Amino acid sequence: MAKEVIVCSGAKHIGKNIAKKFGAKFQILTTKKFPDGEICVKFEEDVRGKNLIFVQSFFGEISDKIIEVLFAAYNAKDLGAKRIELLSLYPPYFRQDKRFNSGEAISIQILGKLFEVFDKVYFVDPHLHRIKEVKEVFKKGERLSSVNVLTNYIQKLKLKNPVFVGPDIESDQWAQNVAIILGKKHVILRKKRLGDRKVQVKLDGGIDLKNKELVIIDDIISTGHTMLKTIKLLKKFKPKKIYCIAVHGLFLENSLKKLSKYAEILSTNTIPSKVSKIDISGIAEEIK
Ligand code: R5P
């Protein structure tokens, strides 16, 4: 039976397009918040016997959005839905993948247990660091990569002499892969994180960056410090132009304005913003 898309609150900007890619019907989940902060979810159409795929992006009020999908998932089961899946556009909590300080919760492990209610969970480019595969935490999880979506968009920019730059070792899965597909050069920097808002980046020479279009690609722009430090380092090589591309553009703390002074900033629309011009909805085609 065909899927039906349940558009959750964080995916209203894209849910309809995703349903189109699936060739599926969609309904928007009604979410009501009471004055005391409690949430009530409601399906406007019958879900009995259906194969549902919830689409949610966990930015902003993350905790509310988690409760929303969990309540909706249990509600769907209670109402007789046949199968329930989740497409997580901006996946939450992957960065808390270890107990950094004694007594801390390993948030992603807890989320792994909570999401067991779903028959399948798809994550668009989750931040995998110490965890190498989503299945280590989410038994029914699967990672979807945005590399093809990014490559198609970048190709349309018709850059003459691009060099792709990854600000840290984990970003090679985007910077390196896009470069390989396009047959271009890439370089991966060494990053040291000294705090939430303090990073150092280093480039081990050997690549000519002068007059090149430098395309920095990372999974997340959060406070923007990683990109800012990277831009400042690259500027010394007198490039023609710098692009900063993120899969997930959170752009916290006025970082979009700060970064835009030095580079053209782009992101996919897993999180909506005025620079989220790279449409991720095509990734739905990777879901069977
Ligand atoms: C972490 O390693 C991620 O890949 C990003 O580099 C990081 O989340 C960016 O954070 P910020 O924008 O705060 O430097």
Protein described:
By secondary structure, the protein is α/β, with parallel strands linked by helices. The protein has seven helices and 15 strands. The chain has helices spanning about 15-20, 60-80, 105-115, 145-155, 170-180, 225-235, 255-260, and strands spanning about 5, 25-30, 30-35, 40, 50-55, 85-90, 120-125, 140-145, 160-165, 185-190, 190-195, 200, 215-220, 240-250, 265. The strands form four sheets. Strands 2-1-5-6-7-8 form a six-stranded parallel sheet, sandwiched between helices. α4 (about 145-155) crosses α5 (about 170-180). The chain is globular. The mean pLDDT is about 95. The structure holds ribose-5-phosphate. Ribose-5-phosphate binds near residues 167, 170, 171, 199 and 218.
Name the helicity range: 10-25%
**Sheet with the most strands, sense and barrel status:** 6 strands, parallel
Strand order of the largest sheet: 2-1-5-6-7-8
Small molecules bound: ribose-5-phosphate
Question: What best-fitting shape do the alpha-carbon axes yield?
Answer: globular
Strand content is 25-35%
Taking pLDDT < 50 over at least 5 consecutive residues as the criterion, the unreliable ranges are none
